Amino acid sequence: MADRANQNQTLDIPEGDNAQASQLIGTQLPSRSCAQCRNSMDPLTPCSKCDMASYCSKMCQKLHWLEHKYSCRLGRPLDEADDFVLACQREEFPTDELVANAFGFMYFASAAGRKRIFNIYCQLLNIYEVTEDEFREAWRRNKLKEFLLFRGSQIPSSALQREMGWLQQQDGFAAGAVHDSSQDRKISFDQWEPREKAEAYIFFYQI
Ligand SMILES: [Zn+2]
Ligand SMILES: [Zn+2]
């Protein structure tokens, strides 16, 4: 009986450093239940590549791979900055409201304003090689506007300088800022986002 208890202990999955961060995402948390079927009765085997997700069977691991492969490759759970960067690389608005909120899109009442800030992001990331980590840092420190103006000012493009002039005037633009006019409140994320949510997710999982 004592032997059996010891055997079970060797199957325990250690809580990683990512445990706190992954609470934001919820699905990739190192845990004592199967990442696919949530079975917590059978012994679990961690993903041999990342050690973050554990499975009760090979079948469950296979079924979960579409969802897991992206985070597995990164070696950590996805966060808002990952989804944001993916959206910019695809040049499609972020499909997740949390992500849109994190990067200040909700500050703008109009689709035109959101499109304009999105174009700035896309240019900085896709053309001027501002890195994903810089964006993540700016978001985490809540210095999005300061960061954009600073990085934008380093780039010798008169078109971009015009956009920086416009951004400078957007008082209150920040990570998580939400437009606060009762008149425009009814414009929801769903309305300005193209009907590509489902397609975007399919695309995402096909990467
Ligand atoms: Zn399972
Ligand atoms: Zn993995």
Indicate the topology:
Elements lengths: L1 H9 L8 H4 L22 E2 L7 E2 L2 H17 L5 H11 L6 H6 L8 H17 L4 H9 L3 H10 L4 H11 L20 H4 L4 H10 L1
Antiparallel strand pairs: 1-2
The chain binds zinc ion (ZN) (2 copies).
What does this structure look like?
- The protein is mostly helical and 207 residues long.
- The chain folds into 2 domains: 2-74, no CATH class; 80-206, no CATH class.
- The chain contains 11 helices and 2 strands.
- Strands 1-2 form a two-stranded antiparallel sheet.
- Helix 4 crosses helix 7 and helix 8 (144-153) runs antiparallel to helix 9 (158-168).
- The longest helix has 17 residues, at 58-74.
- Mean pLDDT is 79; it is low at 1-29, 182-187 and 195-207.
- The structure holds zinc ion (2 copies).
Question: What is the CA-CA span between the terminal residues?
Answer: 47 Å
Order of helices and strands: HHEEHHHHHHHHH
Number of helices: 11
Ligand inventory reads:
zinc ion
Q: Average pLDDT value?
A: 79
Alpha-beta classification: mainly alpha
Identify low-pLDDT runs: 1-29, 182-187, 195-207
Describe the largest sheet. Answer: 2 strands, antiparallel
The percentage of residues in β strands lies in: under 5%
